[in-house]
Design brief:
- Helix content is 47%, strand content 20%.
- With 157 residues, it is an alpha/beta fold.
- It has a single domain, classed as Mannitol-specific EII, Chain A (3-Layer(aba) Sandwich).
- Strands 1, 2, 3, 4, 5 and 6 form a 6-stranded mixed β-sheet that branches.
- Helix 2 packs across helix 3.
- The protein is globular, with a radius of gyration of 14 Å.
- The mean pLDDT is 92.
Length: 157
């Protein structure tokens, strides 16, 4: 598992698996958790992500979605991750329901940083062994060990 997302998730959130009925509920769940962590408004995050979703699906295939948006008053890119108990429709490129959702929010002026962060998330979640391990994980701590192995190793030392 080659890519570590500690830089995005260190100040972000990883949630225990949740049950939702649709994309809107999944996005609301992550937007709310990120708002609490960043002290931003849930509605601002949700609206920005939904605006991006209207431009085109963030369902990248293999059950993965990477909803993202640029937000005012944010110092640097921050991520949130959740595994859904059952996948929901994200209009993914392969038409599969998405159960691995990584929400990325970045500052409005962070063009290159935003794109680098998206690429890093995509590279990580493109790995079949990472996806399989995330689907087998039962808790946020187990998922954090998969997505942030460098942080897990540092705290164990």
């Amino acid at each position: 598992m080659a890519t570590d997302l500690s830089g995005l998730l260190g100040e972000g959130v990883i949630l225990d698996p949740v049950a939702v009925e649709n994309r809107k509920q999944a996005l609301t769940t992550l937007a709310s958790a990120l708002a609490e962590r960043t002290r931003l408004d849930t509605r601002d995050i949700f609206d920005a992500v939904m605006e991006r979703e209207r431009l085109g699906s963030t369902g990248v295939g293999e059950g993965v979605a990477i909803p993202h948006a640029r937000i005012e008053k944010l110092p640097h890119p921050i991520g949130g991750f959740v595994r859904l108990e059952d996948g929901v429709d994200f209009d993914a490129v392969d038409s599969r329901p998405c159960d691995l959702i990584f929400m990325l929010i970045a500052p409005v002026g962070s063009g290159a940083d935003h794109l680098r962060a998206l690429a890093q998330v995509s590279r990580t979640l493109r790995q079949p062994d990472v996806r399989e391990a995330l689907r087998e994980a039962q808790t946020a701590d187990e998922m954090k060990a998969i997505l942030c192995p460098e942080a897990a190793n540092a705290s164990a030392a």
